[in-house]
Structures are given as structure tokens and as C-alpha cells.
Amino acid sequence: MNATALDSELLILVDEADREIGLMSKADCHRGAGVLHRAFSLLIFNEAGELLLQQRSAAKRLWPLYWSNSCCSHPRSHETIEKAIHRRLYEELGVRCPLQFLFKFRYQAQFDASGAERELCSVYIGTCAEPLRINPHEISDWRWIAPQQLQEQMTGPDSARFTPWFKLEWEQIWRDHRELIAA
Questions:
Q1: What is the per-residue pLDDT across 112-162, written as a single tens digit (0 to 9) for each?
Q2: 3-state DSSP call for residue 77?
Q3: Which of 119, 121, 128, 169 is catalytic?
Q4: How far apart are the C-alpha atoms of 66 and 89, rounded to whole Å?
């Protein structure tokens, strides 16, 4: 799908309780201060317990070349979140694996004067042993990192290199779900 088609893709607008209230193009959802819409974030670990980080493509409108969670996106109109997370995992990383829901959080992050994220984001984790087939249109670079090493980077001078949503969700995972990522 080209960038114009992606910008016109309809996203699901939601209220604070995650009830669907309408549809809006991806471009319009991210314009200005943003409009609250449904999203998801996936954190994929390997069998060694390392987390897959991706560096977002230089072609991304918001936070290009920032490091972020393994995969994130939006469900399409009339698509369940369950179907969307598995679709996007395969589109971006070329893998399939079981995913476990952790939590939802709402945030707003301003990138520049013309664009922002305003999302109600569902966070999932999974472990994958399959070899990755990275989509170069979505991902500029990628690496595996131990959770403790990531925590040190997130709380140190390198933290500005990470997307705002990933910093927020990682803080909650580290605080409330560390036993899951240590297993």
C-alpha cells in the first residue's frame, strides 16, 4: 500500500471507554493535536528473553527513525483487534505467534505543529522463535535487547531516541508486568 492509500485508511474513533464513535482517515486522525482513535502495540520477545526493537522508517510522518516497540498500528474499520494484531505482526515482521493482552492506556503526544498521536492503545506481548522477515517500507533497522539494558536506555540520556508511546508503555510494563518479561 502506498503512503497516500495509507493516509486515507479509515481509523476507528473511540471515546474514553473505548466505545466506537465513528471513523476518520489516518491523516486526519493525526493532524494538529490528533483525534482519539483505537491502536495497538506489540512487544515480541525471542526465546532468550530479548525484546525486538524497531527503528521506524524514515518515510513515517510521525517519529521517523525513532526506536520503538516491535510493531504497532491500528485496527481497520470492522476489524477486531484480535484480527488486526495478527495481521499487522505478519505485515511488518513476517511472523506469527500467540499474543497476550496486558493493558490499555490513553495518551497524546505532539510530534510537531502539524501532527500528533492521540490513541487508546492496547498492549500485547508474545514470544516468537520464527526468523523475522522485516518489511523495509515500515522498518529502517531492528535489534534485540535484554529488558534490563532497555530499562537503562529508557531512563538514561538515550531516552529521547524512543517514541513517546513506547516510553509510556515500557514504564508500565517494567513497573507492573516485569515478572512476565523475566519468565
A1: 998 999 999 999 999 999 999 999 999 999 999 999 999 999 999 989 999
A2: coil
A3: 119
A4: 19
Residue 175 CB partners (closer than 8 Å, separation 6+): none
**Known catalytic membership, residue 152:** no
**119 has catalytic annotation:** yes
Q: What is the mean pLDDT of the chain?
A: 94
52: β partners: 144
Number of domains in the chain: 1
Q: Please, which residues bridge with residue 108 across strands?
A: 118
Distance CA 154, CA 162 (A): 8
Q: Catalytic: which of 72, 92, 128, 169?
A: 72
Q: Which domain holds residue 45?
A: 3-182
**Predicted confidence band of residue 183 (pLDDT cuts 50, 70, 90):** low
CATH number at residue 109: 3.90.79.10
**From the CB of residue 52, how many other CB atoms can be counted at a distance below 10 Å?**
21
**How many CB atoms neighbour CB 123 within 10 A?**
24
